[in-house]
Amino acid sequence: MYFVGISVADIRKEPKFESERDSQLIYGEEVRVISSHSEYSLIEGRDGLQGYMKSRLIVNGKPRTHKLKASYIAETARFPFGSYVSKEDVDKYGIPRNILTGIGNFDFSVPDLSRSFLGIPYLWGGTSDFGFDCSGFVQRLYRFIGKELPRNADWQRDFTADVPGFEKAIPGDLVFFKNHVALYLGNNIIIHANGYDASISMTDLSDESEYSGELLSIFEKIGRVQKSL
Question: What per-residue confidence (pLDDT) applies to 78?
Answer without folding.
Answer: 97
